[in-house]
Amino acid sequence: MKTVFDITEFGAVGDGVTDCTEAIQKAMDAAGGCKGKITVPPGNYNVRGNLKLRGEGISIEGSGAWSYRNDGGSAFILTDENAECLLDISGAFGCRICGMSFNGSNLGKGIHGILLSWPVPNGGGQEDTPNIDGCRISRFSGDGIRFHNVWCFSLRHNHIIWNKGAALRFCGWDGFITDNWLAGNGEGGINASGLAASVTATANRIEWNRTGGIIIHKGNSFNFTGNFFDRTFGPALELGADGEGVNLATVTGNIFRRGGCYEKAPFTDRFRSSHVIMNGCTGCVLTGNTMKAGRGDGGTPPLSPDYGLIIKNCENSIIKDNALHKASLVNNLITENNKNCIIENNIGCLL
Q1: 252-300 per-position pLDDT tens digit
Q2: Which of 2, 10, 50, 281 is most buried as measured by Cβ atoms within 10 A of its Cβ?
Q3: Contact call for residues 214 and 206 (beta carbons, < 8 A)
Q4: What does the alpha-carbon distance between residue 15 and residue 46 come to, in Å, rounded to a whole number?
């Protein structure tokens, strides 16, 4: 029984001209019935979008080898400004997407790169478990990856860059985000929309994103270790918000550099010019991190951030032993209305 399906066998042509939507969809449908593999030879394949991957244990495999500025060998290029997404994997349980480039061509409004969406939590009745590995996802007018009501996911070694939404926007739980490069996105590197829980983010580079680096307003059980945050236009890490909160989070061993930068005018909320905001956090730990203020590349202004740590409305949390050497311009540590917290040994000086 045939289980490997080359999209060119179905009529796809990687010349950057031919519309390959129907050919690629046929390959995906064939793989969906047998836990098959879809192979994508090097080339630029034009698609109108809304490709649908359905079934269990399916994989898409291309030739990665992308660079910072350009797509990799195997690229799907969006051509329709009215699409909802380029690839919809809702119902593709346990799928793996490896070595692909997805380019949104800056078309339309709110078009996502990869979409998984259920109307209610656990909408699929089982763990979704998508694994996206070694892909480049860029230039979408929505989010690079949009997971809504996802149950279990893994992102590894991806380059998610220059999307107008977030690199990853998710609502759901059980996520593993490791060794990704999230850069230059309009609404954050990782942005939780709604309830989020049980997520580990390790060894990611999160830089030059507007809005913020990691933004989670409500949820529980997070582990953020060994990430590099650089030149963020908003707080590099924002946990909790007025009227909401985060419970049970560990933040340790991260570098925060040049966070809290404004672009055209200072923030209306001055505390957004900061490395870290913790607001309404309970049972959380922020320790062993390093922070540094600075200018943009090439020494261009403005210097940022104004503040280092903003800790307010927190309870039963520990904020200690962070290095704040030349970490901010105005004040390295602001604390307000915290209860039963240890906040100490956050040593350093202003720039």
Answers
A1: 999 999 999 998 889 999 999 999 999 999 999 999 999 999 999 988 8
A2: 281
A3: yes
A4: 8
Residue 81, sorted as left (phi over 0), alpha (psi -120 to 50) or beta, turns out to be alpha
Q: Residue 78: count other Cβ atoms within 10 Å of its Cβ.
A: 26
Q: Are 306 and 274 in contact (CB under 8 A)?
A: yes
Q: Which residue in 224, 332, 335 sits closest to 284, CA to CA?
A: 224
How far is C-alpha 316 from the geometric centre of its chain's CA atoms?
Answer: 29
pLDDT of 157 above 90: yes
* Number of separate helices (H) and strands (E) present in the chain: 1, 36
Mean pLDDT, range 324-339, rounded to an integer: 98
Beta carbons of 48 and 20 less than 8 angstroms apart: no
Amino acid at 49: G
Residue 222 CB-half CA count within 13 A: 32
- What average pLDDT does the structure give for the chain? 97
Residue 171 · residue 194 · CB < 8 Å: yes
Q: pLDDT value at position 299?
A: 83
| pLDDT band at 301; cut points 50, 70, 90 | confident
CA 307 to chain centre: 24
Geometric angle at alpha carbon 150, from 146 and 152, rounded to 5°: 115
Determine the pLDDT at residue 298: 85
Distance CA 12, CA 221 (A): 44
Prior bond to 305 cis, omega within 30? Answer: yes
Query: Looking at residue 228, what is its pLDDT?
Result: 98
In the predicted structure, residue 214 carries a pLDDT above the cut 90: yes
Let me know how long the chain is: 351
pTM of the model: 0.97
CATH of span 1-172: 2.160.20.10
The H or E element containing residue 175 is: strand 168-178
Residue boundaries of the structural domains of the chain: 1-172, 212-351
